[in-house]
């Protein structure tokens, strides 16, 4: 069978993939050498896509109140309830919450149905938690939401600055591209992040600024630009607001950044000294109560120096989700219309209304994510449809959001699984076709539109998201407006509408694609917009903006700290973000044993001085408390974070580690301009968690833990779990039998009741099915060895260690080849390896996707080769 070209469903890099059906009904996946975003490369997540496609846990049929139902009656119910709610309480009593992971065609239908036909702007998206501040910052500076940069700029830059971006873990293929440029032409790399991350390894400069102080830092840079006469008079002649902006910047107190003069000077020198500078920014910028200001603080420096719209330079917002950009194009945010047109603009409204043949278009923005769920809580939203997102986990004050959804009179959830924290609360569950089964387009960070193509049949009754919404639209009475036959037809309509936007002089115009045939759509190659008869090329090269006067804007900014200041009750700042091998709430990556091996439980990075002061030992558990929630996490003591700050990942949920739902602690402070929540600067308290015992379990079947702390992860042959509780079970055997659901299986047990320690192994026909290790202190076990034992004879399992005649690989670092930390350290020491390349040659580690290369570099720094030691 020939390979099918598609696009990776994870991050906004938008890597091309080649898919081939394997004999087991799954897919073999490799990077597409012809795709401009990745040229054949994939990261660990993209490489492991094949492991995430099984049907276990898939939602295969519509369900109403937990009972399987047919599509006809279910969609009629959805249409009737939405219609009745609008009739009784008005259009603003219903809402859609959608996602930057939906395809452009899905997103277009959702936006058209809500804004054009239901007649409310109450459609918002998880992009509010992600890109909203960038959208608002772009609109203030440029008059429209345009990303000026392209990936090619990274190859040509002399300096790359990462601001609030852990590119090595979150956009790994772009990071590899930066590293390649560094090797080829000595590109300098600066990282601005309060935390030392994998992206800092080998960087020329890391600025560990105070959380939230980016505006001050870029104001300092702007002032230095002026002082050094590095501003560009020709560029400034075409800019509004420069005088006020320079004045506000000059009034900034540099000390609020927490950086010393030498650090500030080094940064300004590098930035000013390299004309070809690309400033990449991401969630450390956007997810802040000053997020929009942070964006404009960065844009100000590029605009003042004229370093924008030219090869190798410019501000570059890297998008998170695969179609974050496409969602902005269709107008999926509550304050946008469609194709970058504005809700507030009567001419735009009227043009869209005529084009859609719509009864009405709202003239004011709808509810933004945080306010939308507050309105659900207050009973103002009475019917809610959530698509392709898990807000009960990922919105701030997640416990309150969960309660609000549970209390909503009518909630519809479209997902590929019915097990998420959000799906469990729904009245109606709609089974969606997953990646690999559906067709459409996505737009990546550099505005390149790529096709996702189906290579597998949709299982059971699963159907694409656009199909579900179009059907509801027809059942609500708009039969002609929603009678789409497929994604190609929706795409053509979207492209035609963009021509109207182009007619208003807007940037997003793909009207040259409005008449493509189904066959041309099927073979559409990656295409960067704009693609219009009269347009193409770079934005802002001519110094012109999309404001009415055609001038770019600099925005005068006074730095503000995060919304709330630390207090005696909540002295710690809680920074949150991502890990290398998991995607958001893990509904897909969590199914891959390889990806789950890298970091298998939720953790808190804590500075050694705080740990010492509070009596927190490595690998014990800590309790985090905030005004809105609590968590229990594993302590990782590291000076990568600053004192009085804690970093915790966002990925764990009620399904995988209920005490690790970090958004339960995050306050719902928002940026006043963009409405984006401040997900990285909540306040919390930190205390040791008094565990009476710690446990570790492996099993070939799913487990049902019920302890104060537990975290489940997949392994090749089953599952693993970390456990802890504040009380000892009265009987270890009963406890273990309940955990594993093994009432009748043979047990081997050793225990030391005085110490509260026990080790239990269950065997069937001589083979291990499950084992539990428990003790009063964190367990030093060879976990990566133990997870391989279920299904084998595992004679010495209760020792908990690797038998003396076998090497212990240690925790997995390279997930592509399953190579552990100890194996790499041993090879470095025994074979005298000196570089990441040599480690790759010796062990293959780091030679496939390259995502672990920064961590291998860190190991090289730590280890001493034998020869050198001698
Ligand atoms: N592996 C993986 N990759 C992903 C995703 C995933 O879930 N997993 N998700 C995708 C999505 S949707 C997104 S949006 C992107 C996000 O990509 P990133 O934004 O790169 O990821 P984060 O880890 O959320 O945050 C980046 C950094 O911001 C820093 N930070 C916190 N506060 C501040 C501050 O005040 N100033 C500055 N300068 N930095 C600060 C944090 O310490 C953190 O290291 O990743 C995408 N890629
Ligand atoms: N504290 C904290 N919170 C954060 C962040 C942070 O950095 N810190 N980051 C924020 C950001 S940037 C983002 S983007 C959000 C992400 O947050 P969410 O969007 O809530 O998280 P996901 O896990 O990506 O949810 C996607 C859901 O879609 C389902 N799904 C998968 N494929 C399909 C499909 O084809 N169709 C349908 N209908 N459903 C499908 C998945 O099973 C899953 O339940 O989290 C935000 N929350
Ligand atoms: S960098 Fe990784 S996650 Fe992102 S699109 Fe490429 S393969 Fe997918
Ligand atoms: Mo995101």
UniProtKB/TrEMBL annotation:
Any one annotated GO CC term: membrane
Gene3D superfamilies, per database record: 2.40.40.20, 3.40.50.740, ADC-like domains, BFD-like [2Fe-2S]-binding domain, Dimethylsulfoxide Reductase, domain 2
GO biological process: cellular respiration; nitrate assimilation
SUPFAM superfamilies in the cross-refs: ADC-like, Formate dehydrogenase/DMSO reductase, domains 1-3
SMART domains: Molybdop_Fe4S4 (SM00926)
Example of a GO MF term: oxidoreductase activity
Domain 4Fe-4S Mo/W bis-MGD-type: start-end pairs: 1-57
Keywords: 4Fe-4S, Iron, Iron-sulfur, Metal-binding, Molybdenum, Nitrate assimilation, Oxidoreductase
Superkingdom, taxonomy of origin: Bacteria
Keyword NAD: no
Transcription regulation among keywords: no
Protein family membership: Belongs to the prokaryotic molybdopterin-containing oxidoreductase family. NasA/NapA/NarB subfamily.
PANTHER family recorded: NADPH-FE(3+) OXIDOREDUCTASE SUBUNIT ALPHA, RESPIRATORY NITRATE REDUCTASE
Name of the protein described by the UniProt record: Assimilatory nitrate reductase (NADH) alpha subunit apoprotein
Organism this protein belongs to: Allosediminivita pacifica
